[in-house]
Amino acid sequence: MTISDRVRIKDVRVLSDNWTPLKNTTFEYRRANGEWQTQHRETYERDNAAAVLPYNRARRTVILVRQFRLPAYIRGYDDLLIEAAAGVLDDAAPEVRIRAEAEEETGYRLHDVHKVFEAFMSPGAITEKLHFFVAEYEPEMRVSDGGGLEHEGEDIEVLELSIDEALAMIADGRIIDAKAIMLLQYVALQVFR
């Protein structure tokens, strides 16, 4: 039996479609004991995205970005969020989109990006699947100041940190972005060990 054999969609209503659709879905789900149960869930229909952590092996540094995030602020985080550079795929291949996003946000033109894993970040409510990448960078790969696209409301600061400082920032709560935490732990274990 597949999951498709256990789910029957009964109704889907669009609650909002300002930036990306918010939907309310009524469905029946066959529980492990064989009984059908009617459930209702709201889903935020986000497109898939990609994130990247540039690193310099010789200097033991990484590139992160810092920017304002309204949801974090609403939840009580009164600071700019330190994150891995990331963006929505917009129908492009993940490898293509993350190179463009890295250049827009960080100013670095990355050559070889390596996909390390995929993850659903909040599968209980958001449809987005994230493709995670790492890429080695050199100082001469910086082609601009970065900062993001002003017309998209981006006002991004680029940070170059030692891997040790970045890991300490996770431990003391200065880095709380899941993308950054996952990628920093990956490079700490796989690159800088």
TrEMBL record:
This is GDP-mannose pyrophosphatase. Keywords: Hydrolase. Signal peptide: none annotated. Residues 45-183 form the Nudix hydrolase domain. Homodimer. Its cofactor is Mg(2+). It catalyses: GDP-alpha-D-mannose + H2O = alpha-D-mannose 1-phosphate + GMP + 2 H(+). It comes from Bradyrhizobium zhanjiangense. PANTHER family: NUDIX HYDROLASE DOMAIN-CONTAINING PROTEIN, UDP/ADP-SUGAR PYROPHOSPHATASE. The lineage of its organism: Bacteria, Pseudomonadati, Pseudomonadota, Alphaproteobacteria, Hyphomicrobiales. Belongs to the Nudix hydrolase family. NudK subfamily.
